């Protein structure tokens, strides 16, 4: 009897202790939460700070949040892209972060009061520098011989593909369709997502692949392979930024705020480069890992904010579709 | 009567599991949406490529299946098992395998180039159809091969002794019965194609309905558009099923003594050519996948094993559930109803199920059961296509005998039917298991980190630049799928020479 009582007391105590550990639920894309992504090290570092339990729920970020609506369990969502933030903002599911944005080191001004950047990159064409001298402008790529084999991603199914049509639009404006027509004979194929394209490139099925300015650094740091380069165009490169936001419905606003603050700290930012293979959003360049500091950076950064992007999107995709369907 | 009730219930369950989720998405999206001109163009391309893919797969499968049915040679049963592998390959792996053979830098061009023959360009409609034939020829061969194996050996003996035309007398009626349904199943699979069509189609000319659904869901969050397109898919699938049922005529050939078929017709050389050509076409890309995956096997993280185990459990669960649903559904109407399952986009099914369970449980806690359920729905049409002819002929041939002996219910199944169904059931179970292993399915909407399946892990690795490890994971996936397929298939062929 005594033993039973002790056990019950023990159990009660244990569950009380468990209840005291607060849980922060963070929704993130699969790549973020996977063991090769930045998720695990960020989780460990944050749990140490807050004495809480950070739990990821991974999967399709925005579709899932929109399906769940106000019933969502998420406190914070991380991994948005500017091309979907308009849809996310309009849903009214997110609350302002209330943070001072002066620590940001982005190549352009950022004043969004809801979506907080944590890393960035630019679209770029990657080539093998042992086989090609590269291209110093978009014009040079369009002028390349038609037997150059390029793979890109579909703007209707891939974020990087969408960034590409916006990039072409930013460089060529009304002439975008004509530019696509010049590029079309060189495009061997269009894939659903980034992984398929990059796989075709590393398998030698393509000479040039649409990817990011940071792609070569993975090969440099993780594989000690110096043969991959990003072609830096004088017309500029399209800016891609990843963002986090707090849910308005969170039952744990302090913890959510603490996590957003954590994003701008050096601890968080130094983990980003070699886990997410992107540029940290709030870290001065001298603190970047070596390979990152040496990467050639575009001089001009092109970017449409979410309203401009939303207005241009259909036309930009249509220019792509009609030129490539010829 | 009781049996009929069970059949009707099973059909309603299947229809409900498909129509329920689609309705949920439609309701949440606020009703139907108008289809744009681009959607209609996608619809036209989808139907066109599915028609040609299915036609070619079935037409090519006929001589291959005939050759396999009348020749015995060393390694024949292993060849039949491995030839089935393309059907269960994850899409992205199959694309890379095909490109290693037919791509710009592939083996074929490496051989043709020095001979001065112009380069083969795989990207375009021809690439889409080539890939779909690669995926579906094995299925068509197996389905039609089963038809041949059902012709009682006594018939061939009689035909041979009378010097009668074997084809018109025995094979043509069998083909009339089997081929239309095989065509329908493959046609419906190809309707759902997306990544293969896009990548090998070379760009936006090869836009399919499934891509439009994906875009509506992921980018625009336009559920009403996604659901409307899913309803279009449903209608196409149903029409294909109905047409197949109408075309599929011809009587069963009556009972035989279940003996091994012996044949006295056919040209050995022609048969050998068909078997070699099909093997080369199907096995060369598989070899490329093997070669690409071997080095990566050593880079695999230890977390790959729990993921592999989860995938295996999903597969076994799906096999059990599919078999339970399939036996009562093995009727003409049941087979038509089951086509609903593969006609609808897995994305819409998953979203609908998510909406349905969400008020009651935390969706991520039911991720694996739901993945299993969707896999069951996807596998049923194939399983029924495989089982129905055998169930029907077992009933026709042994039903009366059983009745006269007073056998009914479970005893009738156990003594008379199951022994006759062992071979198709083994094949069907193997196919279900292998398909469920490789399916990425709906898990991306539900999953939690550390609970991924093997295919999900493969995509994760690929998304992190770790192509080599990803190919290793793909090889592991293929090996497990083929192993599972082989184990069930072999189990079903104990004591059977074919």
Short description:
The complex is a heterodimer of chains A (about 325) and B (about 500). In chain A, about 45% of the residues lie in helices and about 20% in strands.
What would you note in describing this structure?
The complex is a heterodimer of chains A (326) and B (498). Chain A has 326 residues and is α/β, with parallel strands linked by helices. Chain A contains 14 helices and twelve strands. Chain A folds into two domains: 172 residues, D-Maltodextrin-Binding Protein, domain 2, CATH 3.40.190; 143 residues, 3-Layer(aba) Sandwich (D-Maltodextrin-Binding Protein, domain 2), CATH 3.40.190.10. In chain A, strands 1, 2, 3, 4, 5, 6, 7, 8, 9, 10, 11 and 12 form a twelve-stranded mixed sheet that branches. In chain A, helix 7 crosses helix 14 and helix 8 packs across helix 14. The radius of gyration of chain A is 22 Å and the shape is globular. Chain A starts with a helix and ends with a helix. Chain B is mostly helical. Chain B is globular and about 65 Å long. Classes of the chains: A alpha/beta (326), B mainly alpha (498).
């Amino acid at each position: 009897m005594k033993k039973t009582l002790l056990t019950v007391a023990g159990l009660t105590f244990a569950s009380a202790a468990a209840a005291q550990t607060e849980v922060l639920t963070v929704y993130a894309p699969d790549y973020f939460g996977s063991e090769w992504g930045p998720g695990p090290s960020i989780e460990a570092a944050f749990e140490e700070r807050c004495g809480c339990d950070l739990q990821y729920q991974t999967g399709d970020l925005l579709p899932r949040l929109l399906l769940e609506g106000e019933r969502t369990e998420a406190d914070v969502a991380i991994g948005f892209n500017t091309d979907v933030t308009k849809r996310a903002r309009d849903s009214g599911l997110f609350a302002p972060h209330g943070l001072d944005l002066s620590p940001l080191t982005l190549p352009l001004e950022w004043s969004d009061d809801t979506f907080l950047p944590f890393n960035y990159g630019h679209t770029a064409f990657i080539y093998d520098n042992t086989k090609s001298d590269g291209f110093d402008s978009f014009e040079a790529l369009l002028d390349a011989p038609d037997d150059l084999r390029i793979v890109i991603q579909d703007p209707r199914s891939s974020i990087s593909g969408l960034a590409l049509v916006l990039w072409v639009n930013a460089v060529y404006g009304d002439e975008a369709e004509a530019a696509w027509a010049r590029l079309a004979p060189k495009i061997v194929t269009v894939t659903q997502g980034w992984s398929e394209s990059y796989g075709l490139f590393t398998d030698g099925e393509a000479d040039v692949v649409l990817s990011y300015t940071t792609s070569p650094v993975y090969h440099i740091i993780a594989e000690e392979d110096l043969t991959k380069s990003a072609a830096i165009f004088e017309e500029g490169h399209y800016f891609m930024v990843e963002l986090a936001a707090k849910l308005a419905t969170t039952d744990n606003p302090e913890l959510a705020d603490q996590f957003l603050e954590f994003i701008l700290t050096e601890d968080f930012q130094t983990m980003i480069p070699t886990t997410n293979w992107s540029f940290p959003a709030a870290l001065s360049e001298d603190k970047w890992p070596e390979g990152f500091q040496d990467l050639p950076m575009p001089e001009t950064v092109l970017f449409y904010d979410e309203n401009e992007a939303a207005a241009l999107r259909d036309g930009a995709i249509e220019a792509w579709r009609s030129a490539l369907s010829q | 009567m009781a049996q009929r009730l069970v059949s009707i219930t099973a059909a309603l369950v299947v229809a409900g599991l498909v129509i329920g989720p689609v309705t949920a998405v439609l309701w949440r999206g606020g009703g139907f949406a108008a289809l744009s001109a681009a959607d209609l163009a996608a619809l036209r391309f989808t139907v066109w490529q599915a028609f040609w893919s299915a036609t070619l797969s079935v037409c090519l499968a006929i001589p291959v299946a005939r050759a396999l049915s009348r020749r015995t040679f060393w390694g024949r049963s292993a060849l039949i098992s491995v030839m089935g592998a393309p059907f269960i390959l994850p899409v992205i792996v199959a694309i890379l395998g095909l490109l290693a053979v037919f791509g710009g830098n592939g083996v074929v061009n490496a051989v043709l180039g020095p001979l001065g023959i112009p380069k083969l360009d795989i990207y375009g409609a021809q690439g889409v159809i080539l890939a779909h034939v690669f995926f579906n020829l094995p299925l068509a061969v197996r389905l039609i091969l089963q038809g041949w194996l059902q012709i009682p050996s006594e018939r061939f003996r009689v035909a041979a002794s009378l010097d009668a035309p074997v084809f018109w007398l025995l094979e043509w009626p069998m083909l009339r019965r089997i081929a239309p349904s095989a065509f329908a199943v493959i046609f419906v699979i190809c309707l759902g194609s997306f990544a293969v069509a896009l990548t090998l189609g070379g760009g936006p000319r090869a836009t399919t309905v499934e891509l439009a659904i994906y875009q509506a869901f992921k980018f625009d969050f336009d559920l009403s558009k996604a659901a409307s397109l899913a309803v279009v898919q449903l209608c196409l699938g149903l029409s294909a099923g109905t047409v197949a049922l109408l075309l599929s005529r011809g009587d069963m050939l009556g009972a035989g003594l279940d003996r091994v078929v012996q044949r006295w017709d056919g040209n050995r050389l022609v048969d050998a050519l068909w078997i070699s050509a099909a093997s080369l076409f199907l096995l060369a890309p598989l070899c490329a996948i093997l070669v690409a995956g071997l080095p990566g096997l050593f880079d695999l993280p230890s977390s790959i094993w729990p993921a592999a185990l989860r995938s295996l459990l999903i597969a076994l669960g799906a096999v059990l559930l599919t078999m339970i649903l399939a036996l009562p559904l093995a009727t003409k109407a049941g087979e038509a109803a089951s086509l609903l399952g593969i006609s609808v986009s897995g994305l819409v099914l998953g979203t609908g199920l998510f909406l349905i369970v969400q008020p009651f449980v935390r969706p991520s806690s039911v991720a694996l059961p739901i993945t299993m359920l969707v896999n069951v729905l996807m596998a049923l049409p194939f399983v029924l296509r495989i089982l129905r002819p055998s169930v029907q002929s077992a009933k026709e041939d042994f039903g009366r005998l059983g009745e006269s002996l007073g056998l009914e219910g479970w005893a009738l199944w156990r003594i008379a039917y199951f022994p006759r169904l062992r071979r198709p059931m083994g094949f069907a179970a193997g196919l279900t298991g292998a398909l469920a292993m490789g399916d990425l399915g709906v898990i991306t909407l539900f999953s939690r980190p550390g609970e991924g399946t093997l295919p999900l892990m493969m995509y994760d690795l690929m998304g992190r630049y770790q192509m080599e490890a990803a190919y290793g994971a793909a090889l592991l996936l293929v090996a497990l799928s083929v192993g599972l397929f082989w184990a069930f298939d072999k189990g079903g062929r104990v004591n059977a020479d074919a």
